[in-house]
Structures are given as C-alpha cells and as structure tokens.
Amino acid sequence: MRWSGKCPDCGEWNTLVEEVYQEGRAESQRSPLSVAAPQKLSAVSAEDIKRLPLAIAEFSRVLGGGIVPGSLVLVGGEPGIGKSTLLLQAAVSIAQNAGQVLYVSGEESIQQLKMRAERLKVGDSDLYLLTDTNLDNLIFQIESMRPKLAIVDSIQTMYLDSVPSSAGTVSQVRECAQRLQALAKSTGVPIFIVGHVTKEGSIAGPKVLEHIVDTVLQLEGDRFHALRLLRSVKNRFGTTSEVGVFEMAGSGMVEVSNPSEVFLAERMMNAPGSSIAVTMEGTRPLLVEVQALTSFTQNPMPRRTANGFDYNRLFILLAVLSKRLGLRLHDQDVFINIVGGMSIDEPAADLAVAIAIASATKGVPVPSDVAIIGEIGLSGELRSVGQLTARLNEAAKLGFARCLLPKTARPIDSPFSNLKLIPARSVGEALDAVLSD
Ligand SMILES: Nc1ncnc2c1ncn2[C@@H]1O[C@H](COP(=O)(O)OP(=O)(O)OP(=O)(O)O)[C@@H](O)[C@H]1O
Ligand SMILES: [Mg+2]
C-alpha cells in the first residue's frame, strides 16, 4: 500500500490504472451475446451477410469489399493524417447511397465539421452530426435512430459515467469499446471508431482495444508527402494484406488507383544510383524508385543511412557487395532513399537496392527501362520471390521493357511479349547484365 508509478510486471511507467471494485456485475459487462442458447452449426442458416457497398473503392477493398453490418472498425493514425476526412467521406458516401449516417465528434464543433464538409464539397445527404462525449447518450441516439452507419471520432474523447476515471484512460477506452461492440452486435449498425496513436505509433489505449474490435485499420503516410496508405492490421471479415492508396488534396482524400505511376512520376532518367524495385503491398504490386548515393569519406566509421529501407538489411547488402563483388565501400558514406516517403520491408527489393548502390559507386546509370526483382542471400546468390506474375504484370503495364529477376529452376513462361526477362543467378551476374557499359 504505497505509491507506485512503475508496473512491476512489464517495467513500463504510468500504466497502472485504478479500478474501483463494484458490488455485483456492472451492467456494462453484460454482453447481449451471452443470453443466447447454443445452436447447432449445421442448423445455422447460411444466408450471406450483405455488405454495405462503399463508393470509395480503395477503402472498400481494404475492408474486404464493403462494410459488414454490425461490425466495429477501429481506424488509427497519427494526428492530422486525415482520419476524420476519410471517415467523413465514407459517411457521405453511405448517406447518399444507403440511408442515414450518424457522425459523432467529441473533438470538433458542428461548425468545424461543416467547414470540412464544405471543403469536401459534400452535397445534400442523409448525414447527421452530433457533438457529444457522453457514450450513454450516444448509445441512446444510435438505438433510437438505427442509422446505416455510425462514426465515433474519437474513442479517446468518449466517457461512461459508470467508470470513475477520466476520458482517454485505459479503463474508459476499454469499457467504451466494449459497449460499442455490444451495441453494434445487438443493433446490426456498423460502427467506425477513430483511435489516436501514441508517440511510438501504436494505437493509444490498451492492446485489448484491438482485440475487442472486428477490424483495425491504420492510416499511414509521411506528413510531408501527400500520399496516404490505409492498411488493415486485423480484419475478421477479409484479408489483411490489402492496402488502399490515397492522396491528400484540398478536396479531401483522393483515391490513387495506380500508385506506381505516382511513385515514378518524378524519376530522373539515366541518373547513376537510381533503380526501380517491384515490391508488393499486400496483393498489390508497387513499383518504387530506390535511390543510392555514395561519397568518399576519411571517417574510419563511414556513415550508412537508410530512409524507408531496413537499416540492418542495408549492412548485409553492403557486406555482400564488398565481399562477393569486391566493391570498394569501406571508405564511402552510403545513403539509401526510397522515393515518395514509402518504406519497403520485403526482401524482394534487395537486388534493386544493391544495384542502386553499385550504380552510384561506379557512376554508371541503370538503364531506365529495367525493373528489378530479387532477394539476395549471403553468398551473393539471388533467391526467387513470391507473386512473380503479379509483379511482372505491373512492370509490363507501366511500360518497362526489361525485368531483371532471379533465375529459377523452373522456366518462367512470360505471358508478356513486350517485357524481356533477364534471369540472373547471382548479384554479380545481375550487375553484369545491367551495368556492363
Ligand atoms: N485546405 C486544405 N487543403 C489540403 N489539405 C488540407 C486542407 N485542410 C486540411 N488539410 C489536410 O487535412 C489534414 C487534417 O485532416 P483530419 O482533420 O482529417 O486529420 P485527423 O487524422 O482527423 O487529425 P486529428 O487526429 O487531429 O483528428 C491536415 O493535416 C491537412 O493535411
Ligand atoms: Mg480528426
């Protein structure tokens, strides 16, 4: 019985929360799901859940093809990234096509919401706004209105009178989310909640919040670039490998249906140190430009900087390049940049990065019509990567004439007559193929 600021279990500071013991079972803990009797699986009717179609195709795809009735979706993202904007657009889309939508904001006034709506050029629709932070009132409103969709912006501003701590605390957030989940399941109203993220980038509040909800979406992007990626981190109704690409504009979040074009738009042709990697974002191929710069240094500990690429992976690639190919890198600072604020975390981009570095050191440009795919092993061998057809398709679609890729035992039958494949067994072979002149 003394002051304690640090959790003896995980060693984190300021994570202890006071929980007041209540006689009996709190009303909020009674789940409407638990009153039902068991049903035989085969007796459950297999009627298809009818998803609400969403006019924003990129958003709809990330959700798994529309909004599932009765689902609770958490949308997280850094401050000012565009969560409210995207959800307002989704609300308008449903309000115009399906019926009433309730948008609850605990952060902004009705006037602020109106201003945003005007910026987004929202026409007349069945969209209702409510600014309140009392969850009991909100639940009452949703129960009596039964909208097609409800949006709660944000979960950290909502509070329940029955929970003694202040809004945004772990117990409030958890309790509010549980109540909303129960509400969504009992009324069939899909509810989207906005969640703040902490400085470390995870969604603020307890980790259990992510377990309570059905779907967790994360809106990411560089604040200095207009591109925004909507990723699904967890989805009970679809794959988590989809990603939606948007561009932040004055008129709101604009869908980008061909992101590769955007990433390659400002490419300087025939500059040494630039190469094109064919990466995958979920099931979607994405061509991105990798830039490398090397410059002579007398510092015994040369600098290695990676922007958008794994730092440790860069060390491995540098070691392979100097050991297997004899590239002189020990007196060179090496900088890697993935253009467009993107970050690549798949090994399939290894070869593109290695070739960009070699091209920068040698001062020889990579031909601009070559796209590069391949993972590099420690002995300098190239390893095959997954979803090759999708990658090749995208490269062909964007007008690349040649594609450098790992040589596999099985010959790749290329359905793309205008894309010439250059198979290589090792990094050395790959370099000879594109940097020979
Ligand atoms: N007139 C404008 N033109 C272009 N972009 C704008 C304009 N007004 C606002 N924005 C963009 O919208 C962003 C704010 O969007 P929004 O309010 O949806 O973010 P949010 O994620 O809800 O933020 P918060 O966490 O603070 O609620 C700004 O950071 C800015 O990039
Ligand atoms: Mg907001």
Could you explain how this protein is built, in words?
The chain has helices at residues 57-63, 83-97, 110-119, 135-145, 170-187, 208-212, 259-264, 311-325, 350-362, 388-397, 427-435, and strands spanning 72-77, 101-105, 127-131, 149-153, 191-195, 215-220, 227-235, 243-249, 252-255, 274-281, 284-296, 304-307, 332-338, 370-372, 375-376, 382-383, 402-406, 420-424. With 437 residues, the protein is of the alpha/beta class. It has two domains: 49-257, 3-Layer(aba) Sandwich (Rossmann fold); 262-435, Ribosomal Protein S5, domain 2 (2-Layer Sandwich), CATH 3.30.230.10. Helix 8 (311-325) packs across helix 9 (350-362) and helix 9 crosses helix 11. It is globular, with a radius of gyration of 26 Å. The model has no long low-confidence stretch (mean pLDDT 87). The structure holds adenosine-5'-triphosphate and magnesium ion. Adenosine-5'-triphosphate (ATP) binds at residues 77, 79-85, 107, 119, 248-250.
